[in-house]
């Protein structure tokens, strides 16, 4: 499921304010990227542009697939998925929310159910499959949203503050799915204001600063945390 997403001369402007201008960036294949920056610098906006939910003021975003990805590309898979910080769920059961993404794919009803139950088992919610989403906690809703994204087997998953206000059990469940996607060759971009088991999966760091994007390895962050175990905030 490997693809490479590239963007060139990417700018976003709101009236007279330039949020950012990024000469170029690329994601994939099999990347794990931590995106940081102060509040209001445009992290969410950038993710929405990369997922196609927003159009940039200037610049372009394109995808390139491996030959076997082009050969087997089908409706059961989505290339780039954006996972909202506040999960958007349908007014229905947990099961119906997760199965939504594969409702038209060429699988039997039995196989679809098996996929959904597998996804829910990974996030520890298989016993709540028939419950209405209104009875779920905030962390459980985020797990349902992650399961719905995972079942599409995206090539790139953009996770916007996925661990905000989550308990350790919910973060642990998100990590299980994120690791599974990485093992399948997917790429992840994760925004967060604190280090945790999810951000520990990242191998690269993007930092939006001074209206541009800086890329650097995570080695200095690891070194800083080793020297001072009380340092948990990664935001500048």
Automatic annotation (TrEMBL):
Mind listing the UniProt keywords for this protein, alphabetically? ATP-binding, Nucleotide-binding, Transport
- Give the top-rank taxon of the lineage listed in the UniProt record for this protein: Bacteria
Q: Domain (ABC transporter): give its ranges.
A: 5-235
Q: Annotated Gene Ontology MF terms?
A: ATP binding; ATP hydrolysis activity
Q: Tell me the leader sequence span.
A: none
Q: Name one Pfam family in it.
A: ABC_tran
Would the keyword Hydrolase turn up in this protein's UniProt record?
Answer: no
Q: Which family does it belong to?
A: Belongs to the ABC transporter superfamily.
Protein name listed in UniProt: Energy-coupling factor ABC transporter ATP-binding protein
- Organism this protein belongs to: Vibrio ostreae
Q: What is the lineage of its organism?
A: Bacteria, Pseudomonadati, Pseudomonadota, Gammaproteobacteria, Vibrionales
């Amino acid at each position: 499921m490997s693809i490479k997403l590239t963007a060139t001369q990417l700018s976003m402007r709101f009236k007279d304010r330039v949020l950012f201008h990024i000469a170029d960036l690329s994601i994939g294949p099999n990347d794990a990227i931590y995106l940081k920056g102060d509040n209001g610098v445009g992290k969410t906006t950038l993710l929405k542009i990369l997922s196609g939910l927003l159009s940039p003021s200037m610049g372009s975003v394109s995808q390139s697939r491996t030959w076997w990805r082009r050969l087997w590309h089908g409706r059961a898979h989505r290339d780039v998925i954006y996972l909202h910080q506040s999960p958007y769920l349908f007014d229905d059961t947990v099961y119906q929310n997760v199965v939504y993404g594969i409702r038209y794919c060429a699988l039997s009803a039995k196989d679809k159910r098996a996929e959904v139950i597998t996804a829910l088992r990974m996030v520890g919610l298989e016993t709540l499959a028939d419950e209405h989403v209104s009875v779920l906690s905030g962390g459980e809703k985020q797990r349902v949203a992650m399961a719905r994204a995972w079942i599409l087997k995206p090539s790139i998953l953009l996770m916007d503050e996925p661990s905000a206000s989550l308990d350790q059990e919910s973060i642990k469940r998100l990590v299980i799915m994120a690791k599974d996607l990485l093992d399948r060759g997917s790429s992840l971009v994760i925004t967060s204001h604190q280090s945790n088991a999810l951000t520990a999966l990242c191998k690269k760091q993007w930092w939006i600063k001074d209206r541009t994007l800086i890329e650097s390895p995570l080695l200095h962050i690891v070194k800083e945390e080793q020297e001072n175990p009380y340092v948990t905030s990664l935001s500048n």
